[in-house]
Write a structure and sequence with these properties.
15 strands, about 350 residues, Outer membrane phospholipase (ompla), Chain C, mainly beta, 12-stranded antiparallel β-barrel, single chain, two-stranded antiparallel sheet, 5 helices, about 45% strand
Length: about 350
C-alpha cells in the first residue's frame, strides 16, 4: 500500500498543477484569503538517521459556494464568503529504499471563510475548519513491535516519563497518529491599491489563530479521536501568529511579477516536555511567470518542532526550497475610492 501511495499522489499532484495552470484567469473563482498554499519542495532533515528527498503538500479546497472573487469585483459589496471541503495531504519521501514514504498525513476538514471590506479597501477575514487528521498507520507510536491499541502498546506509555526522549523512541515505520481537530483563524490585510489596474499593489497581512485537538469528530461523533495517553503527548492547543508582506514589481504592467515575505510562528501548549513547543517558518517567494501569477518559487528557513504528524517530537533547523502557488493572488478588485496610503 505504501508503494502505491507515492506514484498516485505525485501523479495527482502534477495533474492538478497542469489543469490549474491552463485554466483562464477569468474562469478561476475559488479564491481563499486564509490558508496554507500548496507546494512541493526539497527539505533538509531534522535527524541524521534519515534523509528527506522531497516533501509535497498538494492542498486542495472544493467549494460548495464561493462568491469572494465575484464580490470583490463589485465596489458595492462589503461581504463575501466560502463553504468548502479542505483536503490537505502531506507526503514526505525519504531516501530509504524499502519505505520511501513514511507516515504520510491526511487532513480532511469542512470549512467556512468570511471576508469583509473595512477602512475602504482593507480586508478582515475569519475562517473555521473542523475535521480529522491522521496518518493512516496501525503500529504502536513508540514501539514498532506492537500494533496500536493492544495491551502491549498501552503498556509502553507507562514507561514514558518527563525525561524520555520521544524523538529517539518514535516508531518511524508505521507509528499511528490520529486526532480530530478544529482550527479558528483571523486575518487582516492592509491593501495599497494600484490606481491604474485597481488591484492590491502592496499588502501587509496579519494572522492570529488557534488549533484545538479534540476527541469527538466535529465535537459530536465518537470516532477518529486520540487515545487518553496520546493527548498527553500531543497537547490540546496550538497557537499561531503570522505576518506576510506582498509587493507587485512594476505594478503598471498588466501581469506584473511579485515577491512575498512570510513569517509564521506556532506554539504548542501542553505537549510532552521533550517536545520543543516553538516553531518558526520564514519564507521568501518570488512569482515570476506574470500571466500565471499564482505560481512561484520559494525558499524557507524553519526552526523548532517538525509539522509532519507525529514527528512534531523532532526538533531543530531545516532549510527548504521549491515551487508553490497562491490560493489568494493579487487579482483585480473594485475599490471604493482611490487609496492614498
Amino acid at each position: 500500500m505504501i508503494r502505491k501511495t507515492l506514484p498516485l499522489s505525485i501523479i495527482s499532484f502534477f495533474f492538478s498543477l497542469v489543469i490549474f495552470a491552463q485554466r483562464p484567469e477569468r474562469d478561476y473563482k475559488q479564491f481563499y484569503p486564509i490558508g496554507d498554499d500548496p507546494d512541493i519542495m526539497y527539505k533538509t532533515s531534522y535527524i541524521k538517521s534519515e534523509t528527506i528527498l522531497f516533501e509535497a503538500n498538494p492542498i486542495a479546497r472544493f467549494s460548495f459556494y464561493n462568491n469572494i472573487h465575484k464580490n470583490l469585483l463589485n465596489k458595492n459589496k462589503n461581504k463575501a464568503s466560502a463553504f468548502y471541503i479542505a483536503f490537505e495531504p502531506q507526503l514526505r519521501m525519504y531516501t530509504d529504499a524499502s519505505l520511501p514514504v513514511k507516515m504520510p498525513s491526511y487532513k480532511v476538514q469542512l470549512g467556512f471563510q468570511g471576508l469583509y471590506r473595512v477602512r475602504l479597501n482593507d480586508f478582515f477575514s475569519f475562517g473555521i475548519e473542523s475535521g480529522h487528521y491522521s496518518n493512516g498507520q496501525s503500529g504502536c507510536a513508540f514501539n514498532k513491535l506492537f500494533d496500536d491499541g493492544t495491551h502491549q502498546c498501552d503498556s509502553i506509555y507507562g514507561l514514558i516519563t518527563d525525561q524520555s526522549d520521544l524523538s529517539q523512541l518514535l516508531n518511524r515505520t508505521n507509528g499511528n497518529f490520529s486526532t480530530n481537530l478544529t482550527e479558528i483563524i483571523f486575518n487582516y490585510r492592509f491593501n495599497k491599491i494600484d490606481e491604474n489596474f485597481e488591484r492590491p499593489a502592496r499588502i501587509h497581512s496579519l494572522t492570529l489563530g488557534f488549533n484545538i485537538y479534540h476527541d469527538r469528530f466535529w465535537g459530536l461523533f465518537d470516532f477518529g479521536g486520540y487515545s487518553d495517553e496520546d493527548i498527553k503527548i500531543y497537547g490540546h492547543l496550538r497557537y499561531t501568529i503570522g505576518y506576510s508582506f506582498i509587493k507587485l514589481l512594476k505594478p503598471d504592467q498588466s501581469n506584473p511579477k511579485r515577491i512575498a515575505f512570510t513569517e509564521n510562528i506556532e506554539l504548542i501548549s501542553g505537549a510532552h516536555p521533550s517536545v520543543n513547543p516553538f516553531r518558526s517558518v520564514t519564507t521568501f517567494a518570488y512569482y515570476p511567470i506574470g500571466k500565471f501569477k499564482e505560481f512561484g518559487v520559494m525558499a524557507s528557513y524553519i526552526y523548532g518542532h517538525d509539522n509532519y504528524n507525529f514527528r512534531f517530537v523532532d526538533g531543530g533547523s531545516q532549510f527548504a526550497f521549491g515551487l508553490t502557488w497562491s490560493s489568494f493572488p493579487s487579482f483585480q478588485i473594485q475599490p471604493k475610492e482611490r487609496d492614498d496610503r
